[in-house]
Amino acid sequence: MEMIEAVRPTMAGAVPTIWTDVLHYLRDNPGHDVSSLKLVACGGSAVPRSLMTAYDELGVRIVQAWGMTETSPLAAVALPRNSDTPERSLYLRGTQGRVVAGVQARIVDDAGAEQPWDGKSVGEIQIRGPWITGSYYEHDTSAVSPDGWLRTGDVGTISPDAFITLTDRSKDVIKSGANGSPRWSWRTSWPLTLRCAPPP
């Protein structure tokens, strides 16, 4: 809080748990000024809709960002258009967004066939671009398709207007200190959900 008030940033980024803690601090300690913040890019896990609406009330817009180490780190940002209705805007901010300039995306089914961007067809999201990983240590290319697309392991859809929505993981495990299922993280999109964690 001291840094936000002293430096007065207009944009910031962090994982949802950080912004949840900041929100609790603001509610428990009224009088702090975060009015300089206009946009927060949030990633690392699904952003709860309740967190987005709570910050909307403070005049701070949270948008979801999607990426991984292999994308250095950003691949997509959920920035709605100015013409979107408030309801549509909130929905789009809950997606993983559209790929950033220079990055391409596609959906591939289990048989390796490319799927349409219709918001319904489900498959692995694959990406490529100038800064997207093409191989791993000692030239391990197992995570890259023969035609050069990074196999992200994330499963989802892409809408006709290019918004990615993740629904699952093809490799159903999260490695973060301990292994867990990512299916729990998607439940943060439920309106009254604040945080989710897999059972031990």
TrEMBL record:
- Gene3D superfamilies given for it? N-terminal domain of ligase-like
Q: Any idea where the AMP-dependent synthetase/ligase domain is? A: 2-137
Top-rank taxon of the source lineage equals Bacteria
Among InterPro entries, the record links this protein to:
AMP-dep_synth/lig_dom (IPR000873), ANL_N_sf (IPR042099), ATP-dep_AMP-bd_enzyme (IPR050237)
Pfam families per record: AMP-binding
Supply the PANTHER family for this chain.
LONG-CHAIN-FATTY-ACID--COA LIGASE, MEDIUM-CHAIN-FATTY-ACID--COA LIGASE
| Protein known as | AMP-dependent synthetase/ligase domain-containing protein
